[in-house]
Every structure is written in C-alpha cells, then in structure tokens.
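Design review, sub-item: ligand-bound model
Attendees: FS, YL, KQ
YL presented the inputs for the iron/sulfur cluster complex:
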Amino acid sequence: MPREIILARSAGQCFGVKRAFNIAMEAAASEDPVVMLGDIVHNEHVVQRIDSAGVKVVEDLDGSGQQGALLVRAHGAAPEVYRKAEEAGLKLLDATCPLVHEIHQVAREMAAEGYRLIVIGDHGHDEVIGIAGQVEDAIILAGPEEVQERLPKRLRKVGVVVQSTQNMENVQRILAELVPRVRELRYVDTICGPTKTHQRDIRTLPSEVDVMVIVGSFTSANTCRLTEISLEKNPRSYQVEDASGLAGEWFVDSITIGVTAGASTPDWIIDEVMEALEKLPD
Ligand code: SF4
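KQ shared the predicted structure:
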C-alpha cells in the first residue's frame, strides 16, 4: 500500500509573518539601509535570507548611529520604540500584523475606560512588551501561579487581553484564578485565528497517523510546543529543522505520515521536507 503523507492545513507561517517577510524583502531592495530590532522570526533559514538581502539586525536604537529605515516586525513594538526611531531620524516601516494592532487598540480602549490592563503572555516576548507598552502599569501574567504573586490586593476593574499565540488552556487557568479576585473583569479573546487553527490541528492529526513530523527551528518556542503536544498524542513524533534532519528508520512500517510546521517555518522548507518524505522507500 502506498504511503499517505498528510500536511496539516495550518502548517507553517501565518499571514502576518509572511507579510512582514515580504515587507522586509521589498525594503531591502530599496536603496536606503534597513535595520530591524531582533530577528524577524525564530528560523535560521529565514533570518539568513533577510540578512543576505541586506536587512541588518540591531539590539537597540540607543546611540546606534543608524540611518535609513527601521522595520517593525510582525509582533509589533511599544510606542517608545516608535518614538526612539523618530528621534533618531529613522523612517518607519511598520510590518506589525494587523491582528496585533487590534490587540493594541483593545488595550488602549480598556485603559481609557478605567480598566487595569492584564496581558496574558510570556515575559520578555516582544509582542507582550509591545501590548503592555500601550498603557501605563499593565500587569503581565505568564501562568496561573503568578496571579497571587503579581496582582495587587484590591482591583475593581480589570481588563484582560492575550498574546496572539498563547495556549488557550493556559489562558483558561489564569482566568479561573482571576475571577474570584476581582470585582469586574472584562476579557477579550485576542488569540489570533491562525494560532487557534494550529492548536486545533496539532490536537487531532498526531493521533490519526503512524508517524508525525514537525518542521521548524529548535529555537522556535512555538515549534517546540507543537512537538511537545504531538509527543503526548503520538510517541513517534519527530522535529526536524529541514529535510536533512529526517532519518529513514523513523518511518519503518508506517502507512501514514502527518506533517506540520511551526508558525516561523517558511513554505520552501516545508516543501523540501514533503518532497523528501515522498521519496522514502515503501
Ligand atoms: S501569529 Fe497571529 S497575530 Fe501573530 S503575526 Fe501571525 S497572524 Fe498575526
């Protein structure tokens, strides 16, 4: 029986990251130098393409003496970054995902209506810093155990938004801790559509196939999380950075192979992995 290889519909980059990559490549083709604060996505292949095209990554804008344009990445930035770029005389190329812009807007509206903002998300993540930076005194919560540690004793009105790529189960656990502690809680589900589809697919596909392959960088938290969930459903789950990481012995006696990829993995790497899998001996 020929082997069946099923690629998850949600595999790979979301439209926000693809859009940011295209903006970066177009900018690189212009004459002005372009700088970016940090890598565009956690994927070495993408980073290398952008670097070869001429977009330079800098750690900070302070005293960097940069000229040209600053590219704001898909997960956005705090207003302070825009201010610094303006002061430095840099032109702004805003590749912030429109869905992240929406989260910023919700955060500002909540603050304007007197809600103390809580951002559920990972500490130190640029998207979370950018959301929290929209208002004064936002509280960031990464897990339910932080509710007691970080929440002030008396809070009447709390508004909650979520990092676009958060895991829904974590959000639900945090909300369950928050509800008994505050008088009025307003929650807006800001996990984005592509993330939800990704999370749904990874909960079903691994149990339906003999072997599961997850394509993406080991430095991508999102890809490693997919591998973790996949391993819970199917012990024959393997993560590879690209086609060169595949090992023939993983697929012995397999009839069905499922493939997915982290939100930072580009299509050309997924295509190469699919081609290599199709060439496996029966
Ligand atoms: S993960 Fe969602 S919010 Fe983030 S860039 Fe992609 S589509 Fe936009």
